[in-house]
Amino acid sequence: MKAKALMISLLAFSVATAVWAEGTVKDEPIKPIEAAVVKDPKMVELGKKLYFDPRLSKSGFISCNSCHNLSLGGTDNLQTSIGDKWQQGPINSPTVLNSSMNVAQFWDGRAKDLKEQAGGPIANPGEMAFTHELATKVLDSIPAYKEEFKTVFGKEAIDIGMVTDAIAAFEETLVTPDSKFDQWLKGDDKALDDKELAGYKLFKDSGCVACHNGPAVGGTSFQKMGLVEPYKTDNKAEGLVAVSKQDADRFKFKVPTLRNVEMTYPYFHDGAAKTLEDAVHIMGQIQLGKKFNDEETANIVAFLKTLTGKQPEITLPVMAPSTNDTPRPDPFGKGDAAKVEGADKKS
Amino acid sequence: MKAKALMISLLAFSVATAVWAEGTVKDEPIKPIEAAVVKDPKMVELGKKLYFDPRLSKSGFISCNSCHNLSLGGTDNLQTSIGDKWQQGPINSPTVLNSSMNVAQFWDGRAKDLKEQAGGPIANPGEMAFTHELATKVLDSIPAYKEEFKTVFGKEAIDIGMVTDAIAAFEETLVTPDSKFDQWLKGDDKALDDKELAGYKLFKDSGCVACHNGPAVGGTSFQKMGLVEPYKTDNKAEGLVAVSKQDADRFKFKVPTLRNVEMTYPYFHDGAAKTLEDAVHIMGQIQLGKKFNDEETANIVAFLKTLTGKQPEITLPVMAPSTNDTPRPDPFGKGDAAKVEGADKKS
After folding, report:
1. Where in the cell is it found (chains A, B) (predicted)?
2. Active-site residue among A22, A127, A229, A296?
3. Same domain, A167 and A48
4. Mean pLDDT of chain A
5. How much is the pLDDT for A345?
6. Nearest CA to CA, how far is B206 from chain A (Å)?
7. pTM recorded for the entire structure
């Protein structure tokens, strides 16, 4: 009886251990991304329409998706972005993917959350060049939008707070779980090959992980760009100091996420590093005082590529048409009566 | 026996008639749109990626979808489009929706089909400002694209013909069946209300339907813009004459489709008519010598709005990232080493 009871206990214990082991995530400084939990699907749907709607811009041509393109890893892959009238932006467009995990928004952290960020580009003269007042006026003139806002928010008049709440709700769903690395974290030891594993070990041991950690492999702190050696750049952005006014915060930027980094080139706040190899090499040097050789760089790059997760599956929204009351877009700055020239060009 | 046989025959005849009537489309000059038949789903999928890929433009910012936006009824809702470096386009962007039914492509018909049209904007210096050679070079440098082209076309090297074949295959799926009007055509007599029906009758009786007919309610011929009265415009486009070199073809343009017309404002080749009411009023006057009063205009507009069909449901494609070999986009015209200025602006 005793032997039998003992065997049953041992068996139960093994099963319990196996179950516990299966469910155990490796204890690493990088954590897996969990799938988004959608609390208000109607708000998310409305937010998606707004995210893709270029009528929130002066020209009627630029939407959130223009610079945070969900077909391209959530960014535009340009050194800095193109704004109204083709103005050259001052800083690299961060990816919207997994941005919900950022400690703050923008490279200088001036927006505390996604909601606060969303209103920025709409009214930025170098970007969408519109105003919050005009944006809500446009939306208010479109019955289908009015109805949708009323359903979601229970109010008659549309205000910018509702617009940014909806956009933020949509952006919160833009996470990318199930990367090869997360599969490895969750117990699939075959998910990484030798190069990738070697790259991760180097990433950890060198100290990259001191800043690039957590579920977003970044986004959790502000750090000086050019910690060990100054970072040489023509870019005039000085980061956090713009918000804190503390001299010690000069050239401190929000650590970007490395999730999907193989899709979010070019790199750094100035977008000056064109390739992952460049980025790894420079980071090693200026942040850690390390000169990675070609093999080490290649291994780290191999690891970084394992951080590409499952891209959000988006059904392209179809927006309701403008009405006769909707303020017209003004791309060429001559008001409604813009003349069309150059029709001798091939049309 | 005879009476019974007669009754059975009558019954059978009634049933047959009812079945025949149910399946009968009304004999009208506008025909219903049928759903697209997808012959090569892999080619369509590839075509969709290309359609949404801004790397086919010099700036890396403009894709087919920029000006033929599938969230906005297949056009950009601008009088004329925005091209590379914010150049002002010379002519209104036609909708891609149902464009497969056009007798030719472009307002002047210079491309015979969708395939021929697709290569135009890529290499147009006022539009995407790229070259076919560079576009295929970009695609060729991306392994996932190479693989996809090989699977679809069975060839190693990518050429522009394959690119345009794929884009055309995707565009062929962009039809919009099941509008209220088509439901009416197919036998649902309750699908149109009195105003809409009155509008359609006027559309027919006035002669609009002489040009705007067929499944696309247009697209089947070239007609003079300003048939009865000249059309006053600053736009320099002269239409078909550019292709035929025949003086009689001056100001003849391809009749645009009226499908989804409530979404495809502003109207005419010069985009000068901002509202449907304006468009109907002007058309009546210059093409038919008719002065529609407010009620007639309103009825025709009500009818035109019944031509909005079921919009294609598109899963946003996610494109494979560029590689270290991919030619870099050049939005600001200074080559790869573009300096970033103005970082004192809010970023």
Report:
1. Periplasm
2. A127
3. yes
4. 93
5. 38
6. 25
7. 0.92
